[in-house]
């Protein structure tokens, strides 16, 4: 019955290539989301350290907000999470698929 047990790693690779554990994640009461913190949360979900539901509950995020972070990382890496550059990366991504 090992197949039915959920496997949760003790650590995953963080956005900067360093090991990331539950203790390394931003605190639950985080209000200021800088690029590194967003990328750490996305890496935690992608690596299986936390589930999507746990992240939404832990940080009081909406599904849309987290999904936008995940999309930004997938498309443009950590730079895509910069609030000041969202429109630039969105335009760049749309141009790539236009032609």
Automatic annotation (TrEMBL):
Q: Name one GO molecular function term.
A: sequence-specific DNA binding
Question: What organism is recorded for this protein?
Answer: Pelagerythrobacter rhizovicinus
Name of the molecule in the record: DUF1153 domain-containing protein
Coiled coil segments of this chain: none
Its domain of life reads Bacteria
């Amino acid at each position: 019955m090992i197949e039915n047990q959920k496997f949760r790693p003790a650590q995953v690779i963080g956005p900067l290539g360093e090991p990331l554990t539950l203790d390394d994640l931003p605190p639950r009461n985080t209000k200021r989301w800088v690029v590194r913190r967003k990328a750490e949360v996305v890496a935690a979900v992608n690596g299986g350290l936390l589930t999507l539901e746990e992240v939404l509950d832990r940080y009081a995020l909406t599904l849309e907000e987290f999904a936008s972070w995940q999309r930004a990382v997938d498309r443009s890496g950590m730079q895509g999470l910069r609030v000041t550059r969202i429109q630039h990366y969105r335009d760049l991504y749309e141009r790539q698929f236009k032609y």
